[in-house]
Amino acid sequence: MCGIVGLLLKDPGLRPRLGELMVPMMIGMTERGPDSAGLAVFTEPVEEGTYKISLYTGEQVVDWKGLLQKLRMAIDAKFDVVTSGNHAVLTSTASPSIVEAWIAEKLPQIAVLSIGRSIDLYKDIGAPADICKRYGFAKLQGTHLVGHTRMATESAVTPAHAHPFTAGHDFCLVHNGSLSNPHLVRRKLEPLGIEFETDNDTEAACRYFEWRLREGDDLKTAVQRGFEELDGFYTFLMGTDDELAIVRDAFACKPAIVAETDDYVAIASEFRSLAHLPGVHKARLFEPKPQEVYAWKV
Amino acid sequence: MESVTKQIADWRLATGRFGQRKVFDLAAVSVRELNQYLHKELPENSLPTVVVNNPDGAHSIAAGMNALVDIEINGHVGYYVAGMNKHARIVVNGNAGPGAAENMMSGLVRVRGFASTSAGASARGGLLVIEGDASLRCGISLKGADIVVGGSVGSFSAFMAQAGRMVICDGAGDALGDSLYEAVIYVRGEVKSLGADAQFEPTTDTDRAVVAELLAVAGFKHDPSEFRRVASARKLYHWNAEAGQEY
What we know:
Number of strands of chain B: 11
Helix content of chain B: 10-25%
Distance between the termini of chain A: 29 Å
Helix content of chain A: 10-25%
Mean pLDDT of chain A: 95
CATH architecture of the largest domain in chain A: 4-Layer Sandwich
Low-confidence stretches of chain B: none
Largest sheet of chain B: 11 strands, mixed
Order of helices and strands of chain A: EHEEHEEHEEHEEEHHHEEEEEE
Oligomer: heterodimer
Low-confidence stretches of chain A: none
Structural class of chain B: alpha/beta
Strand content of chain A: 25-35%
CATH topology of the largest domain in chain A: Glutamine Phosphoribosylpyrophosphate, subunit 1, domain 1
Shape of chain A: globular
Mean pLDDT of chain B: 92
Strand content of chain B: 15-25%
Strand order of the largest sheet of chain B: 1-2-3-4-5-6-7-8-9-11-10
Shape of chain B: elongated
Number of strands of chain A: 16
Order of helices and strands of chain B: HEHEEEEEEEEEHE
């Protein structure tokens, strides 16, 4: 079992309150996912040619100033870092693949969680309320977000196995359910040069969709293709720099409910995570139908 | 039609005993406290109408009832509302999460909004009314209860339903009545597909009378002759070793 939450704010006036509105949503999903939690928040994109890289350092204490100096010496570009506990968002004008390769070589204890111009990503093990507090989720601002609380059923409880999963740039996915053919998907993708970081089933779906997006599919087409390729139970919630999308498998075993008003679109596994939202009792409430892709643009 | 008639009698009996109102605000007290009251602390005489406010999607509200009492829930509820209900008349003024009135034994459950998956699953008796749409697997393994849905039902509804009646005022998704036993489905709208061994059958006066009575109890105004009957072809009752098996 797992819990998913998503929130897209149509009203720009609400965007400074994105995190504050989300925290009770995530805490509401604690019983569905008590062992880990994570969040991808999408902000207005940083300027062209600049990228944000979300980093996770685990138990390691990292000298961020020292890291910045080393990066500046090694790569001719601008670097800046904002830290939050053992997470950090590194902003740079360098090519993100060069930075990623440099980190992998010099500081392999640091994990790259996400890359993009809009996405910041946090995930860790522990109770959702603790994680919300640890990383100050209530203060996050942005246009939309994708969150998850995890109750692991098929792979280990580690920060790397927590959701959201990311692939490519400005793309993330969370999953409630379980896939029965993740290894088959993986064996299809690996010969194409797509690398995996964990043995988690959700990562296979995430990398599959991101591969389809890079091949030119739009999100809806990619998901349609996924109906043939991905076997198992799922409610997937996906985020891109300007879109939030949800889809449920043909059997709709995993719950989801959407509340839409003129101001926001809020998505959760259960209504109890939406009950606190302003105006939710006047919202259009519905459960996504099986194998139908619902998407909202910022 | 015995079950429905008996339900109405129960309902009148309960109505006759309504007295004061006992209000639970779930913003202030827990579902456990509410259910403890409903299970163990109801007064012996002059049963109150129990009003539940701010349910906010909580699970198992008024599950396991075993008393002829009226319960009114004002808002949306989560999983298993009125599960295993016996005798009580429970109204949800909102939407219901998965498994509403699952395993109901008797009584009346009315959901004024929509109901999520597996509404009325395995229910043995009583009447479940869903005024909006019901999601997938409505009435799965139904064992004798009656279900009336004002809107449509999702795929795999009445899967392996053994006894009882389902009246669907709008359409149904895929595989309606798959592997049906002796439950009977009446459906007014379009059926995307019938499940294995389910078949449309001609309706008789008895069928129309059943539909008319269930519609009347549920409070829906439709012409009973607009409903089609779906029942088991009973071809799966016996193993056919001659049949070509495809997997």
